[in-house]
Design goal:
This protein is mainly beta. The protein contains 1 helix and 20 strands. The longest helix is centred in the first third of the chain and has 19 residues, at 2-20.
């Protein structure tokens, strides 16, 4: 009985030694940061790339193969968002982005443990006591059409368990092709972007229509449409046109000049000019189109000869 006990003890020790050395391939990796720089998510998307560099080493005395999986979660500021992912500024404002495996931006670089289950999968076969090195490109994109993005600095830090390397190893030259759930290492990186204050402006034609004698006021309206980043303060100014005499606006036509004026209010008592903080129209952007009405008036005056009279006004947005 003693002999049997000793033989059984030896077998258990051998089994324990075998299990302890089952992991012969080890991999490490680094990821460069994703820096989008200045972005304007109101009207355009912004792309930026990063590079994963990895090294895998086979410490066994025989050829070994493995399926190595590189997982990326939501990040420290991601708030559980995976598709799209989320950056935040210091006040908790949101900026959406995504990280992709391919240049066509069709396959998300995801995680075996969270959200989109599409980690980057690398199959390696390594000769005994040898190493292999390679890299993979990550394609980042800030999503366009974000009307609520507030100007400021944003980030999402992929530290700690927000990244993971898993290794599914087998002997011989055929990798298993599937990921394991045993996390061995991380490859931290940070995604950053700065939302800049941006505004765009457009305007419609102010048409006073067909009139006869200019014996009374002739009124008309048009619109100026402003789109500014959320929270961006702006002022809209109108210049005096191409044919002005001092601050008197004038249209030109075949019979000479016709005076007119542009106002900020319906009663046409507040002239709309271009002096900041004096006769401009102020507002605060909300990321969407904001429409301002221009109130025009041709006052009574000596009627020139018939024809088409016009002028061109330059609209300026200061923010």
């Amino acid at each position: 009985m003693i002999s049997r006990f000793r033989i059984l003890l030896v077998l258990l020790l051998v089994a324990g030694i075998t299990a302890a050395h089952a992991q012969n391939i080890d991999c490490s990796a680094t990821m460069t940061n994703v820096s989008f720089g200045n972005v304007n998510p109101l009207s355009s998307q912004t792309d930026a790339n990063a590079t994963l560099n990895y090294t895998c080493t086979n410490n066994a005395n025989s050829t070994r193969s493995a399926t190595v999986c590189f997982s990326i979660g939501d990040g420290a500021q991601g708030a559980g968002n995976s598709n799209p992912r989320l950056m935040q500024d210091g006040a908790g404002d949101d900026l959406f982005f995504q990280l992709w495996q391919n240049a066509a931006h069709t396959t998300v670089w995801g995680s075996s443990f969270f959200g989109v289950n599409t980690p980057v999968i690398i199959n390696v076969t390594i000769a005994r006591n040898s190493s292999t090195q390679s890299s993979a490109t990550m394609y980042g994109r800030v999503v366009a059409g974000q009307t609520t993005a507030v100007p400021g600095a944003y980030q999402d830090a992929f530290t700690g368990n927000h990244t993971a390397i898993t290794i599914n190893e087998t002997g011989g030259t055929t990798p298993p092709g599937t990921c394991t759930t045993s996390i061995l290492h991380q490859f931290p990186f940070t995604v950053t972007a700065t939302v800049t204050s941006q505004c765009s402006v457009s305007a419609s034609t102010l048409d006073f229509g067909a009139v006869g004698l200019l014996l009374a006021n002739t009124d008309g309206t048009s619109t100026v449409t402003v789109q500014c980043a959320s929270g961006a303060a702006y002022q809209v100014g109108l210049d005096n046109g191409q044919h002005a005499a001092g601050t008197t606006r004038r249209m030109q036509g075949p019979g000479g000049l016709v005076t007119y004026e542009l106002y900020r209010n319906t009663t046409r008592t507040q002239r709309w000019g271009s002096t900041l903080n004096t006769d401009t129209v102020s507002g605060s952007g909300n990321g969407s189109n904001q429409t301002l009405t221009v109130y025009g008036r041709v006052p009574n005056q000596t009627t020139p000869s018939a024809g088409t009279y016009n002028d061109t006004i330059t609209v300026t947005v200061t923010y």
